[in-house]
TrEMBL record:
Annotated RNA polymerase sigma factor 70 region 4 type domain residues: 105-155
Keyword Nuclease (UniProt): no
Molecular function, one GO term: sigma factor activity
Cellular compartments per GO CC: DNA-directed RNA polymerase complex
Sorted UniProt keywords: DNA-directed RNA polymerase, Sigma factor, Transcription, Transcription regulation
Family according to the record: Belongs to the sigma-70 factor family. ECF subfamily.
Protein name as it appears in the record: DNA-directed RNA polymerase sigma-70 factor
Record SUPFAM superfamilies: Sigma2 domain of RNA polymerase sigma factors (SSF88946), Sigma3 and sigma4 domains of RNA polymerase sigma factors (SSF88659)
Domain RNA polymerase sigma-70 region: start-end pairs: 12-78
GO annotation, biological process: DNA-templated transcription initiation
Length: 165
């Protein structure tokens, strides 16, 4: 049991920041992201004995996190969430420095992407290797590169729209 505790602590320390950013990218809400982070790692703890080492553990954890976020989003009332998120982002933006304002704006733009696009761009921002992103998202590496290019174009367009306001 002590070995499992130590292994889990190491896994959590190595992956929690990336998983938080992933959850935040899905929700655009700090509290929800923290809740989803906790829920993800509860599932990791519960299923750690079932991990088969056929993929990297970070890939396995990302899959758990993605499924947790998607389940959360399906259960949320989307319309109320969409109305609330921009207001929260505006309130928080006033509190950030200029650089943090840009980061907040980027996450606001990411929140406007489709679910599959949010997961991919979050992993790109986390600097995961493309083969790992392709494995997690279930698409070929070639298709992934095209998709990332399109996502970046869409984000640039969204970002520029906000900058003009």
């Amino acid at each position: 049991m002590a070995d499992k505790d130590a292994a889990f602590r190491q896994i959590f320390e190595s992956n929690s920041k990336k998983i938080y950013r992933l959850c935040y990218g899905y929700t655009g809400d700090e509290d929800a992201a923290h809740d989803l982070l906790q829920e993800t790692f509860v599932k990791v703890w519960q299923n750690l004995d079932k991990f088969r080492n056929t993929a990297m553990i970070s890939t396995w954890i990302y899959r758990i996190a993605v499924n947790t976020c998607l389940t959360y989003l399906r259960s949320e009332k989307r319309q109320a969430k969409e109305e609330l998120t921009p207001q929260l982002a505006e309130t928080r933006r006033e509190e950030f420095s200029e650089k943090n304002e840009q980061i907040a704006l980027l996450y606001k733009c990411i929140a406007k992407l489709e679910e599959s696009e949010r997961i991919i761009i979050t992993m790109v921002l986390d600097e995961l290797p493309y083969p790992e992103i392709a494995e997690i998202s279930g698409i070929s590496e070639g298709n992934l590169r095209v998709k990332i290019h399109r996502i970046k174009q869409r984000l640039t367009d969204l970002y520029n729209q906000y900058e003009r306001l």
